[in-house]
Amino acid sequence: MKHLSVALLLLLWGLNSFAQESFKELNKKGNEALNKADYETALTYFTKAVKVGTDDQSNLAWTAAIAGICAHELSKTDEAMQLFSKAIQNKTTDVDIYQRQITLTSKKHPKLYEEVLQLGRKNLPQFNASYTSKLMYLYLKQKQYDKAVTTADELLKLKPGKTKALYIKAVALIGLKKYTEAETIFKSIIEKEPTNHKALTQYGLLLNNLATVKFETAKAKYNKLAKPTRMDYAKYKKETKLSYPAYNKAIDILLKAYAVKSSAAVKKALFTAYTRTEQKEKANKYK
């Protein structure tokens, strides 16, 4: 039994040595093909080397990266993305690999895009702010509002007072229905940048939507009545007028946004706000 165990250990050691040698040999053949600009052959050898593997993480990362570049040059996009991912997972510090992966994954491959940004922040700390910013926008686009807020906060630690981070955080807070917090941030942006069109627009639309909720609640309550009386109507009108201060606050911000740059969303909101507050003459300007 003892002799069998020793023999088994020797066999395993031999197989491991063979694998290591195979990795080196495959790499060598891949480099020879690469030197001849034979990307197809080089890709075959480098890909096999990646599959064989090695305990040397930096060497594995390098091999996966070169294989990915070969695949990319051959327009084998899916293969390139997987190989770049392997290189990044093994902590390559080649900036070009991250940039290639970002370009390939940003539009249609959100999971790989998130991976390259997350690992890029760790592996390339000099690009932490840039990758965190891209990650923040990704989470907002995916409506992962909690993550968008967290990532915005991380960016604000790296770049205190950065307007774009504050803006994304405020928009994400709206998604989380944390309207008061969002309003506070929009106010701070506008105080610093009075003509910031995006902040003015989103803040104005937020105020308009909050006013509309008050108005529609009163309207829905009245519409539920089977046979409303004059007193019911008078009460309905009184309740809808409770939304007027909120609408007027929205109008003030929306007009500032419209003055900076006209947009369909702002125009529609102004029409609604003026109509609901019975300012028909002013509403007609934004039909």
Spans where pLDDT lies below 50 across 5 or more residues: 8-15
Strand content: under 5%
User: Helix tally?
Assistant: 15
How would a textbook summarize the main sheet?
none
**Number of spatially distinct domains:** 3
Radius of gyration: 30 Å
Helical content (DSSP H or I, runs of 4+): over 70%
Quick check: average pLDDT? Answer: 93
CATH architecture of the largest domain: Alpha Horseshoe
Order of helices and strands: HHHHHHHHHHHHHHH
* N/C terminus separation: 92 Å
Shape: elongated
Q: Can you walk me through this structure?
A:
The longest helix is centred in the N-terminal third of the chain and has 34 residues, at 2-35. The radius of gyration is 30 Å and the shape is elongated. It contains 15 helices and no strands. Residues 8-15 have low confidence and may be disordered. The chain has 3 domains: 18-123, Tetratricopeptide repeat domain (Serine Threonine Protein Phosphatase 5, Tetratricopeptide repeat, Alpha Horseshoe); 124-193, Serine Threonine Protein Phosphatase 5, Tetratricopeptide repeat (Alpha Horseshoe); 196-287. The protein is mostly helical and 287 residues long. The chain has helices at 2-35, 39-52, 57-73, 77-89, 95-105, 110-123, 128-141, 145-158, 163-175, 179-192, 197-223, 230-240, 244-260, 264-276, 280-283.
